[in-house]
Request: fold
Amino acid sequence: MPLARESLLDAAFTALARRPWSAVRMVDVAAVAGVSRQTLYNEFGSKEGLARALVRREIDSYLLGAERALRGHPEPRERLAAVAEWTVTAARSNPLIRAALTGLWSERLPTPVLTAVPSSVAIPAQRRADGPLPSPADLLTLVRDQAVGALMAPGTPRSHATDLARRAELALRLALSSILAPVGAGGVAALVRETLAALPNLTASPRA
Reply:
């Protein structure tokens, strides 16, 4: 039931914006989504399963946004500035993404363990949600590797790829620091541009 599942996740996210996760009731989530409570349990197995699925969805949304940001500009430095800006914007607008990126889970949020948990349902999407969740370091690595994949052409020397990976990681770490301590005029994109401009020149070969 893909549509019911998305409706339930939307309802859970809306409920979380209004009250702490500990006060969110499964029966209310089901009612807002317009499905039975049994359908909710069939999809997620438990409230913990719902929490894991919600966190997994928001992380996937963040990664998809990072991929789009990396395709939005022809120049490598601008692509890294764009993904840094997306990271900060996503974290500020979505508390689950902020927590996943920083590891700072407030009392208002669900706190799913990052290791895999036994899955009580056979639905593939839920089995994936019940699998391992990425740590902040894992997410940084995933987006850093996305950046390298987006900017490097096949056959590029390993040293070039290594240098670009360092620059991508620097841009992302500047973004993470800006989530916790916002920067001034120009935002994180300007900070990334200025920092990368101070490094030795590197001309990456962007994919078409």
Summary: Residues 204-208 have pLDDT under 50 and may be disordered. Residues 47-70 form the longest helix (24 residues). The CA atoms of residues 69 and 83 lie 5 Å apart. DSSP finds ten helices and no strands in the chain.
